[in-house]
Amino acid sequence: MAPQREIVDQVSGWLTVYDGGFVDRTWTGPPQFKFMSDPVPPHHNFINGVATHDLFTHPDADHRVRVYLPEIPDSGKLPIILHFHGGGFCISQADWFMYYNTYTRLAREAGAIVVSTYLRLAPEHRIPAAIDDAYSTLLWLQDLADEKIHEPWLSSKGDFNRVFLIGDSSGGNIVHQLAKKAAGENLHPLTLAGAIPIHPGFLRSEKSKSELEKPESPFLTLDMLYKFLKLGLPVGSTRDHPITCPMGESLKGLDLPPYLLCVAEEDLVIDTEMEFYEEMKKAGKKVELLVSNGVGHSFYLNKIAIDVDPKTSEETHKLIQGISDFIRNH
Questions:
Q1: Could you tell me which residue ranges the Alpha/beta hydrolase fold-3 domain spans (predicted)?
Q2: pLDDT tier for residue 1 given thresholds of 50, 70 and 90
Q3: Quick check: bond before 218 cis, omega within 30?
Q4: N or C: which end of the chain has fewer CB within 10 A?
Q5: Sheet holding 192-198, edge to edge
Q6: pLDDT class of 68 with cuts at 50, 70, 90
Q7: What is the 3-state secondary structure (H, E, C) of 246-273?
Q8: Are 117 and 67 spatial neighbours (Cβ–Cβ below 8 Å)?
Q9: Measured between alpha carbons, how far is residue 122 from residues 230, 233, 306 in Å?
Q10: pLDDT tens digits along 271-298
């Protein structure tokens, strides 16, 4: 008879960590929300104007991406959006329905190819594993731009002079880390044209006013936020780690691309996100702000709310439109 495992840590609904390092990510929350974390199989045929496929970026490495190609005939080269999913570094995958639903829409409306990276997850693979995966994808795109390798959709349709980084929640943290890393390197013939952190998980060990006063949401509670980061950051780190607390960090000499920082008025971490915005402006970096009013963290990933709540639907439309406009203008 196998010995019974003991629970070491748990994030309600999302994740249970057992002794011995076993992690169970079976959804245990309300069943009506489960479909949003169900994987969507790739389809090479166009459905609602977008085709998708998954591929390994290197034959000898377990590193995958999902590619979204919009059906835009005779449009020439298309900008490339390099996407990093959220989940507090601990949960979610690039093929989850919530991302499929959002990024097929963005590919279609922005007229861009989306490349979404399958990131390794903590606590089995703590940070910087996910950042390393993100960087590997960027170098893969550089090899494609340099014609060292070939991928039919990207090689024939992608504009490697207009590559944009985008990430949801903890994926927004990865966007900033990758933009900083790329600023010190020669990516020619690839050009980073912009960086779009959406509701990044920027915060400090000391709780902000918004953490204490803003309402919790299905996509972010304080318990979820703090536990995920405890499991995701390097062992012994606090929330003051530079990955989660880039506010006040020196940006001197860094040639960062233009940023579009997307925040939500009711997000628990909006105060520290705004602190980051002000620091970027003080450092003389190009940064625009897109505020979604009356909604909370990652609201646009919630298909149920988009369908039944006019406010969520309207703000999702404005967010997608704002991101599309930023891409067209850079």
A1: 81-300
A2: very low
A3: no
A4: N
A5: 50-56, 64-70, 113-117, 78-84, 158-168, 192-198, 259-264, 287-292
A6: very high
A7: CCCCCCCCCCCCCEEEEEECCCCCHHHH
A8: no
A9: 10, 8, 30
A10: 999 999 999 999 999 999 999 999 999 9
pLDDT surpasses 90 at 74: no
- H runs (alpha helix) in 67-208: 97-110, 129-145, 152-157, 170-183
Max distance between CA atoms of the chain, in angstroms, equals: 64
Burial of 75 (0-12, 13-18, 19+ CB in 10 A): exposed
Which of helix, strand or coil describes residue 271?
A: helix
Of 53, 144, 48, 132, whose CA–CA distance to 89 is shortest? 132
Average pLDDT over residues 211-233: 93
Whose structure tokens read 């960087």? 135
| Contact between 51 and 45 (Cβ < 8 Å) | yes
Phi then psi for residue 182, to 5 deg, are: -70, -25
Pairing of the two strands 78-84 and 158-168: parallel
97-120 pLDDT, tens per residue?
A: 999 999 999 999 999 999 999 999
Q: 199 in the Ramachandran plot: left (φ > 0), alpha (ψ -120 to 50) or beta? A: left
The number of helices, as runs of H, and strands, as runs of E, in the chain is: 9, 11
Would you state the structure tokens that stand for residue 281, as one six-digit string?
Answer: 């402006």
What's the angle, vertex CA 260, arms to CA 194 and CA 281, rounded to 5? 105
Whether the predicted pLDDT of 4 surpasses 80: no
Active site residues: 169, 267
CA dist 169 and 203 (Å) reads: 12
Measured CA angle at 170 (ends 25, 102), to 5 deg: 80
pLDDT at 2 over 50: no
- The answer to whether 262 and 196 have CB atoms below 8 angstroms apart is yes
pLDDT of residue 3: 57
Residue found by looking up tokens 């997850």 in the block: 121
pTM of the predicted protein model: 0.96
